[in-house]
Structure formats: structure tokens, C-alpha cells
Amino acid sequence: MGTTLHQDSPPKQTDQETIARQKAIDDWLPITSSRNAKWWYSAFHNVTAMVGAGVLSLPYAMSELGWGPGVAVLVLSWVITLYTLWQMVEMHEMVPGKRFDRYHELGQHAFGEKLGLYIVVPQQLVVEVGVCIVYMVTGGKSLKKFHDLVCPDCKQIKQTYFIMIFATVHFVLSHLPNFNSIAGVSLAAAVMSLSYSTIAWAGALHKGVQPDVEYGYKSKSAVGTMFNFFSALGDVAFAYAGHNVVLEIQATIPSTPEVPSKVPMWKGVIVAYIVVALCYFPVALIGYYVYGNAIEDNILISLNKPAWLIAMANMFVVVHVIGSYQIYAMPVFDMMETLLVKKLNFKPSIILRFVVRNLYVAFTMFVAITFPFFGGLLGFFGGFAFAPTTYFLPCIMWLSIYKPRKFGLSWWTNWICIVIGVLLMIVSPIGALRSIILQAKDYKFYS
Predict the structure, then answer these.
(1) Longest dimension (CA), the chain
(2) Helix (H) or strand (E) segment spanning residue 187
(3) How far is CA 280 from CA 18, 71, 87, 170, 354, in A?
(4) What is the mean pLDDT of the chain?
(5) Buried b or exposed e, range 16-30, using 16+ CB within 10 angstroms
(6) Which residues, at least 6 apart from 383, have a Cβ–Cβ distance to it below 8 Å?
(7) Could you give the CA distance from residue 345 to residue 199 in angstroms, rounded to a whole number?
(8) Residue 404: in which H helix or E strand, if any?
């Protein structure tokens, strides 16, 4: 820090100063500053992180996968991601007296200081920043939809402006200091995700199976069908992206030798996964059952009536996405602030936080306005980053740290997850890239 040491000063003192300074910084950083979360915080943070607006595109993914593969992929994803999430919760405190508060710290423990950072941080950033951008677009689109439904005769307003309106909320909310301070936002978001999922499947059920429903593949060519299938796999992978913030959520829970943080955390995760199942399965299966392959990529668009109900559902989506954005932004703030304070020796201050976080929100808003077909981009990035961080990185870490017996149950389970995850990582970007190219053909910038 630029303090000069005199010869006669005892080294103990400086060690204590360093420790005190580190502690002061940790008490200031968003992830580690507050460790008094309850187990139910873990439940609604996980629901908010997991049940994205992606749930509304699951019926569309089903239409590209077909009944058999679709159900299999949904169930398998639920099981595999629950297993890898359990591994991460277990690994959070596997070194006695130490906590891996961030995904990359666990990565460094598993793969070494340098390599761990290079493996985990880029992927985690792609996921977290990507999700924030997608939620900017989703928030803007849902606001626009709400406006158009409530006031059909009003003057048309460009989507760009709605994205800006949505961003203004985050220019305010992103100054909440840490994870526990967004608990209220997160709870509201979790409730909303259940609400709009229920509106989606109940509305579809109420409509009943459409008269000319078809369950065959939409694309007439085998190649098109295959690409759509790949792209749908990417959509499903995106639906389970909560692992990128799970260690950071667990870091906010107090831990004692008698009750380690994994106990309340796991309790919360189980509740969250039950809610996830209640949101995902009915929406995906009932939506596809009712509309077949004529389903839109957002089930609320297919439902279009009654207008007030769909307007309400869109508003719920907006509230949910506000919470989700904050949950994914918090670890990014943590990374940026850690870098500035620990590496570049900035002073931890409100001004630093104000500048850093506003710049981040502005950046995500700018990208969202520039590329509103970001959903396709997400399938593309999602394949590269979601599949590893959710489906197989935890397994690789588990194998490298615990070294289970070769060909034992744990060994096989992890390798199967790794193989499935790697396949997902390879095929989903292929399908998504094609859909981006098709969408971008007739796209005008800042229209």
C-alpha cells in the first residue's frame, strides 16, 4: 500500500495490519460482507437465479425436440444439474476452516492458482454478463408488450426506449451493497416466476388443445430439424444456469462447525428445485400439448387473450427479470471491485462502487439495445459457458479433488455427466449460430 517499513518495527505488526486490511476489504466486498442469511434466502435466490424467463421458451424447445427426446432432456437436465449443484454445495467448505466463497476460488483449489482463474472466470463472466444482457432485452420486450396490450391505440414506442426504461431501475438497484440486501427483490422475483409460469400453463390448459394441432417437426428438411434440435438443447441448458452464483449465495450463509453452511444451503436448494420443477414441467409439457409445433418461442405470445391476464403476466416477467439481473450482476460487481481494490489498490469507497456499477449497467443496456436478437446469441454463448459451468465443471473439480475410486459409482456418475455436458457444449452453439444468421438477415440496427 506504499507504507514504508522501519528496521525496528516488529514484523508481527505488519502481518496484523495486512490481515486487518484484508478483513476490511472482505467486509466491504458484496459477496463476503454479510454472512447472516437464512436457509430460505438460499431457496429464493436459487429460484430467482434458475427460473429465468427461459421457462417461457420451453414449450418451443419441446416442439423442436419432440415428445420422447423432449421429456427425456427435461428430466435428465433436472437430475444432472441437481447433482452437480449438490457437489458445489458440498465443496464450498471441504477444506476445514476455509470457505470457497466464489466459483473461481474453488476452480483455483481444483486446478491451481493460475489455471483455475483462466478456466473459470471467462466462462462465469460470459454467463453472468450474458444473462444480464438477455434480461435487459427481456425486460424491455415485456414492458413494450405490457404497454401495447394496455393501450393498443397509443403511439408505438420503439423497443429501444423500453430497454432504457428497464435499465433505469438497475441504475438505482445496483447500488444495494451485497447479496443479503437484495433478498427482498429476490423474493419478489421468485414469487413472480411461479406466478407467470402458472399463468402460462393454466392459460394454455384453459384454451384446450387447438383444433389443428400437430406434433411433428416443423422443419421440412432433415438438416433443419437437426439444427433446431441442437438449438433447443441449448435453450434447455440455459434454463438451468443457477450454478454460476451458487457458491456466492452460499457464502452469505453463516457457518459453524456444528452447522456448516451446506446444511441450510442444501435445504434451500431442495425447495428451489421443487419450485423449478413446478415451473418448468407444466409449462413445457402443457404448452406443447396444447399448441403443438405452432407454439411461439414465448408461450405468452401464443396465449394473446385475455389481454389483461397476459399484460399481468408480462409485468410479472418484468419484476422477475429485475431480481434475476441483480443476482447475476452481484458476482460481477464483486469481481470488478475485488480487482480494483486488491490488485489496483483503489480505496474501497461509495464513489468507486457508484462509478463501477453504473458503468456496468450502462454497458449491458448498450449491448441489449444493439443486439435485441440476443436470445439466439445466448444459445450460442450458452453452449460454450452454460454447459460447462452447470453440467460438467463441478464434476471435473470433484474428480480432481476427491479422486473417487476408479469405476466406482461416483466415478461413473461424474464421467457420464461430463460426456453429456461436453456434447451439449459442442452441439448447442451450432444450432444457435444458424438461428442467429437467419434472424440477422432482416435486422436493422437501432430500429
Answers:
(1) 89
(2) helix 183-207
(3) 48, 11, 23, 27, 37
(4) 86
(5) eeeeeeeeebeebbb
(6) 234, 237, 424, 425, 426, 427, 428, 429, 430, 432
(7) 50
(8) none
Residue 336 has pLDDT above 80, yes or no: yes
- Report which of 128, 165, 51, 100 is spatially closest to residue 328, judged by C-alpha positions: 128
**376, three cell numbers:** 439466439
- Residue 334 CA to residue 447 CA, distance in Å, equals 34
CA atoms within 13 A on the CB side of 147: 17
Rg (alpha carbons) of the chain, rounded to whole number: 23
**Do residues 165 and 142 make contact, with C-beta atoms less than 8 angstroms apart?**
no
The band of 78, judged by pLDDT with boundaries at 50, 70 and 90, is very high
What is residue 7's DSSP assignment?
T
Nearest to 391 by CA among 381, 382, 378: 382
Single out the residue of 170, 113, 72 nearest to residue 368, CA to CA.
Answer: 170
CB 89 within 8 A of CB 265: yes
Taking alpha carbons only, the member of 306, 319, 388 closest to residue 53 is 319
Distance CA(106)–CA(88), nearest Å, equals 9
Reply yes or no: is the peptide bond before residue 306 cis, omega within 30 of 0.
Answer: yes
Report whether 74 contacts 281 (CB < 8 A).
yes
Tens of pLDDT, residues 247-296: 989 998 998 888 899 999 999 999 999 999 999 999 999 999 998 888 88
- For every residue of 240-251, DSSP letters joined together read T-GGGGHHHHHT
Tens-place pLDDT, residues 379-416: 676 677 778 888 889 999 999 989 999 999 999 999 99
In which residue are the cell numbers 454467463 written? 127
| pTM of the complete model beyond 0.85 | yes
pLDDT reading at 8 higher than 80: no
What single-letter amino acid sits at 400?
S
Q: Is 179 within 8 Å of 330 (Cβ atoms)?
A: yes
Q: Which phi and psi angles does 260 have, rounded to 5°?
A: -65, 160
- Tell me which amino acid residue 357 is: R
Amino acid present at 31: I
